[in-house]
Amino acid sequence: MKKLSLLFVIVIGILFSNTTFAQTSKKETINVWGSCGMCKKKIEKAAKIAGASAAKWDAEKHELEVSYDDSKTTNTKIQEAIVKMGYDTQDFTATQETYDNLPGCCQYDRKPAKKEDSKN
Ligand SMILES: [Cu+2]
Predict the structure, then answer these.
(1) At what angle do helices 37-49 and 75-84 cross, to 10 degrees?
(2) Which residues surround ligand 1, an ion (CB under 5 A)?
(3) For residue 75, what are the domain limits?
(4) From ligand 1's centre to the CA of 78, what distance in Å?
(5) What is the domain count for the chain?
(6) What is the CATH number of the domain that holds 59?
(7) Mind listing the pLDDT tens digit of every residue in the chain (120 residues)?
(8) Strands, E, within 17-110: which ranges?
(9) 72 occurs within a structural domain
(10) Is residue 10, in this structure, part of any structural domain at all?
(11) 2 domain-assigned
C-alpha cells in the first residue's frame, strides 16, 4: 500500500510539472519584408524550421505572426532563419548576396534604411 501511494505522488508530480512547463508558448508579430506567395511559403517555412509551432505571414502588412515555445527557440532565432533566406526583418537585414539570389518575383522592396544611413 505504501508503494502505491508513493507511485500516486510521483504521477501527480509529473502531471503538475508538465502543465507548468507547458505554458511557455508565446505569440508575437514580427515585421518581415517580402512580396509574393513564394516569399510567404519560404518565410513561414524558415520560421517553422527555426522552431515556431505556427507562422502566418501577411504580404500586405509585411507582418509575420508566430507562435513558439520559448524553451525551444527565440524571436531572434526565428528572425535569423528568415534573414538567411534573403528576407529583411525588423531587427536584421539580409545580405545583398542572398537578396540577389532570390527569384525575380521575390525581389521585394527592401526594408527602409535607418535614418542615419539615408541622408541624401
Ligand atoms: Cu516571392
Answers:
(1) 130
(2) 35-36, 38-39, 106
(3) 20-111
(4) 19
(5) 1
(6) 3.30.70.100
(7) 567 777 666 666 666 665 555 558 999 999 999 999 999 999 999 999 999 999 999 999 999 999 999 999 999 999 999 999 999 999 999 999 999 999 999 999 999 987 655 444
(8) 25-31, 52-58, 63-69
(9) yes
(10) no
(11) no
